[in-house]
Amino acid sequence: MESLQAQLQELGPVLTAVGANILWALLALVVTWIAAKLVSRAVGRLSERGIDETLVPVLETLAVWATYVVGGLVVLDIFGANTTSLVALLGATGLAIGLALKDTLQSIAAGFVLLGLRPFRVGETIQFGNTIGTVRKIGLFTTEMDTPDGLRISAPNDKVWGETLTNFSRNPKRRIELIASIAYRDDIETGMRVLRQLVADESRILADPEPAYAVRELADSAVNLHMRAWVKTAEYWDVYWALMKQLKPALEAEGLSIPFPQRELHVVAGDSAKIATKAGPK
User: What strand order describes the sheet that includes 223-232?
Assistant: First the structure.
């Protein structure tokens, strides 16, 4: 009994020290958690101070993880761990993990390139490969977009960066191209006048650059008239659809017809009947 009491007396200071370390470690974890929340909120408000909102999610993620790492090192230091050796061990482990996760690291590197060069920002509509959508978030690993049909897609950053990028929203103006097909028997100047009147009646078409008109092609069954005009990017589709809706009635009001593909049939008389066909206007 006396030996047990002696052992307990010897373990008392050790247990007290361990208990104190546990309490300090728990306090450090709580402080780290609170600090991570405060850092996340502070970084999240950077967009209100003029920081590009494209960068905010990535900065927020990096800041939060950095806070957790610092908190973890503090906890280990409380228990007397050799943090210097631990950092070296983490570095070696990180190298091994990096070799195993090469594709993932490529996505991270591509994410930093996208954030640095900024070929697109949050809210802009882009296309890479066969994918088109509005950018919602650029993360460390993926870029999230909403497609025109309402789907949310998540594409690896290296796949996005590896394709030719088309940004439909970056420039303030876009050019509308309209093709009006009229029959060969119709008057070209009348068709041009119809196009000019459509442009004149559409107030959203910009005067600079000036709209252009031309005969684009003498096709098999029609004469194709071409109109080019510039509009604000945000109004592109509204103006385009409005012009397309008005084009047919405007041509018909001037007595012009929109031809359809057709062929002429020629029967050649002789010992053996031959039939020849060729495309041509009505």
Answer: 173-182, 223-232, 212-218
